[in-house]
């Protein structure tokens, strides 16, 4: 993660411009693997490019960041669960705007222990969702920083089972 920030800063220096990332908040939706002791991660497709991503969006006025991230999980995937109050990390990506311009975003990610997925939710006809094992989820996403967060969540789960 630190090296990605360094590269972003170097790129800004080389171009003579200062790149300021815009903050987004998101959740890493997880549940115990029903087949064994591992962890599963729910990914959704983005609306435009149909790539695999996590539920995320802009911070919301009047809501703390973890609560705004949990709201995004409900709106984009119909997820209900317990969201951690501390971020598990962050990653960077280029968001394509409606104007076709791109903006650098830093997504602050909170783990969401999913308790249920509703039958209906606001964006159910706009996205697909699917549960993945940790290695498959990390391979499915295109952002290296997000893949690293997914792998780290899986490693934390394994470490907590040994105790």
From TrEMBL:
<dbReference type="Pfam" id="PF00293">
    <property type="entry name" value="NUDIX"/>
</dbReference>
<protein>
    <submittedName>
        <fullName>NUDIX hydrolase</fullName>
    </submittedName>
</protein>
<keyword id="KW-0479">Metal-binding</keyword>
<keyword id="KW-0460">Magnesium</keyword>
<feature type="domain" description="Nudix hydrolase">
    <location>
        <begin position="20"/>
        <end position="154"/>
    </location>
</feature>
<dbReference type="GO" id="GO:0016462">
    <property type="term" value="F:pyrophosphatase activity"/>
</dbReference>
<dbReference type="GO" id="GO:0046872">
    <property type="term" value="F:metal ion binding"/>
</dbReference>
<dbReference type="GO" id="GO:0005737">
    <property type="term" value="C:cytoplasm"/>
</dbReference>
<dbReference type="InterPro" id="IPR015797">
    <property type="entry name" value="NUDIX_hydrolase-like_dom_sf"/>
</dbReference>
<dbReference type="InterPro" id="IPR000086">
    <property type="entry name" value="NUDIX_hydrolase_dom"/>
</dbReference>
<dbReference type="InterPro" id="IPR047198">
    <property type="entry name" value="DDP-like_NUDIX"/>
</dbReference>
<keyword id="KW-0378">Hydrolase</keyword>
């Amino acid at each position: 993660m630190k090296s990605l920030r360094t590269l972003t800063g170097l790129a800004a220096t080389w171009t003579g411009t200062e790149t300021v990332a815009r903050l987004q908040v998101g959740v890493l939706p997880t549940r115990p693997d029903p087949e064994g002791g591992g962890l599963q991660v729910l990914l959704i497709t983005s609306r435009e490019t149909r790539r695999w991503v996590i539920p995320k969006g802009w911070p919301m006025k009047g809501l703390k960041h973890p609560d705004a991230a949990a709201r995004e999980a409900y709106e984009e995937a119909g997820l209900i669960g317990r969201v951690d109050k501390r971020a598990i990390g962050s990653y960077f990506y280029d968001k394509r705007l409606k104007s076709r311009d791109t903006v650098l975003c830093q997504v602050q990610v909170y783990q969401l222990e999913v308790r249920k997925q509703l039958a209906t939710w606001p964006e159910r006809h706009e996205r697909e969702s699917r549960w993945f094992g940790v290695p498959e989820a990390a391979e499915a996403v295109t952002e290296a920083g997000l893949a690293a967060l997914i792998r780290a969540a899986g490693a934390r789960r394994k470490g907590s089972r040994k105790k």
